[in-house]
Specification:
single chain, globular, about 525 residues, mainly alpha
């Protein structure tokens, strides 16, 4: 085993972490602020139903599709440089979105925001890996980073509500400008530059294949959630998987691949990605249904709903900071398993919600869900990114972000669809209702709320009860799945020692190097 001196980070590195937190908060903010801006911008721009869907989805599609490419690009041209380019692009796209004069212009601006966002996310993680080489400090730094995205998401309804109460809908996008300005001023002073000196040119065919693999899968998931599993969803899923196979085969043949598949030979890397993926599925579904419950069942305005999302965000902060500190004495697998077991208790509490007047119970349950998220985000990210070679930190960061984006999308789609199915099964629209009103009433609680003034007495209460039933069923399914994940985490991460345990970590690195050498040998044989 080769040993290396690991320098402890000083004030400059911790100040640099503060700089990296800024774009992370911004990306989280952008996720939730759009939910508030949609009604106002729809009244102004009058988008069709399809255009409204793309206004919401263009951003997420492009982020998910380009994370791998941008992570590898940062390894090649420099991670600080890519971060600053992305910040400028994000600011410019935010201005274009704020002053959009048509739905088409706003869709294009949101797509540009997605492309810029894809440069920011892996750059921040990879730079943390470069700046914090001491394993204990690095784990804590990843914990701080993990809380920033949730902090931005929690602040979105509050900041968005304040802006939209006083200004036009475009003001929600202009929040990005002061953040971008701070990053551009502080990054050259506090962030180091790093690039892989041995990297070659980006393989454009691999870029195309990665997009063709990820985008159809994301589209199929979203389409299946809104329209049901039909031919379009199946074709999208099959096409994405086929392109994914082609992408993997090409990476195995290339001497300098877009995604180095040797990373997957490390047991810790693959196990952590699996835990992040499954864990985020539960979080994505819970976040979607809890925000709906607060606004549609409890009938809270967006700002108050955002306020009640604050305590869960604080729970995530405690877990993301506390887990790396505990991991210095307790094995990460035990911490992840224990916090996920607490998350399962949180889902049980959500299962106990029985109607309006349950704000405290919902907040407590979702807080425990977020507790598990904080732990797996901090420790999982450290295992994925921190365990990768320095020159591959960008690629590892991109994989970490990609599985989290995919997990959230799957959670919203699958668990959201399950809740919708329960809702429709529990409701029967009275025959005397006009067809459009009956359709809205039977589709979702948001649809029923939009025609509440045209419904007979008692029907809107029935719709709220059906929504609560959907939350109960999905919470039950999530509790069972997350409890199983907790047990699995203890088993698959059992070989990972405490953070800073050089002996255990060294044995793991030796095993990973041997696995990587085997992949290299296979690649050489395949190319020969």
């Amino acid at each position: 085993m080769t040993t290396s001196t690991r320098r402890r980070a000083g004030p400059r590195e911790w100040a640099g972490l503060g700089v990296l937190a800024l774009p992370t908060v911004l990306l989280g903010l952008d996720v939730t602020v759009m939910y508030l801006a949609i009604p106002a911008l729809s009244a102004d721009l009058n988008p069709s139903s399809v255009e409204a869907l793309w206004i919401m989805d263009a951003y997420g599609f492009l982020i998910a599709g380009l994370l791998i490419t941008m992570g590898t690009l940062g390894d090649r041209i420099g991670r600080r440089r890519l971060l600053m380019i992305g910040a400028v692009a994000f600011g410019a796209a935010s201005v274009a979105a704020a002053f959009s004069t048509s739905a088409t212009m706003l869709i294009a601006s949101r797509a540009a925001l997605g492309i810029a966002g894809a440069t920011l996310m892996p750059s921040t993680l990879a730079l943390i890996s470069n700046m914090f080489t001491d394993v204990r400090q690095r784990a804590l730094a990843f914990g701080v980073w993990a809380t920033m995205f949730a902090l931005g998401m929690a602040a979105g309804p509050l900041i968005g509500g304040l802006l939209l109460d006083s200004f036009w809908w475009g003001s929600a996008f202009l929040v990005a400008l002061p953040v971008v300005a701070l990053v551009l001023v502080a990054a050259p002073l506090l962030l180091p530059e790093y690039r892989d000196p041995g990297s070659g040119r980006i393989d454009l065919i691999s870029v195309g294949l990665s997009l063709a693999a990820i985008l159809p899968v994301i589209y199929a998931i979203k389409h299946g959630a809104s329209e049901g599993v039909d031919a379009t969803a199946v074709v999208g899923l099959v096409a994405g998987l086929a392109f994914g196979v082609a992408f993997v085969r090409r990476q195995n043949r290339l001497p300098d691949p877009l995604l180095d598949l040797r990373l997957f030979a490390a047991p810790a890397f693959t196990s952590a990605l699996t835990i992040l993926l499954v864990g985020l599925v539960g979080v994505g579904g819970a976040m979607f249904l809890v925000t709906q419950h607060l606004q549609l069942v409890e009938q809270l305005p967006p700002m108050q709903a955002g306020f009640w999302m604050g305590p869960p965000a604080l729970m995530m902060f405690v877990a993301a900071i506390g887990a790396p500190l505990l991991a210095r004495r307790i094995r990460p697998g035990h911490i992840v398993g224990g916090t996920l077991a607490l998350s399962a208790v949180g889902y049980v509490l959500l299962r106990s919600v029985d109607g309006p007047g349950s704000i405290g119970l919902v907040t407590a349950g979702f807080g425990l869900v977020y507790l598990g998220l904080g732990a797996i985000a901090a420790l999982g990210t450290d295992l994925v990114v921190g365990g990768a070679p320095p020159e591959k930190a960008g690629s590892a960061s991109a994989m970490s972000e990609t599985v989290q984006e995919l997990g959230l999308a799957v959670g919203v789609a699958v668990l959201g669809s399950l809740a919708s199915a329960v809702y429709r099964d529990r409701l029967v629209a009275p025959a005397e209702l006009p067809a459009p009103v009956a359709a809205a009433y039977g589709e979702s609680l948001s649809g029923a709320s939009s025609v509440a003034d045209r419904l007979p007495a008692g029907l809107i209460e029935q719709a709220r009860a059906a929504q609560v039933a959907g939350l109960q069923v999905t919470a039950t399914v999530s509790a069972v799945a997350i409890l199983a994940l907790a047990v699995l985490s203890v088993v698959v991460l059992r070989h990972i020692g405490t953070v800073g345990d050089d002996e255990t970590r060294g044995e793991t690195e030796d095993a990973d190097e041997q696995a990587g050498a085997a992949v290299d040998a296979g690649r050489a044989t395949g190319s020969g």
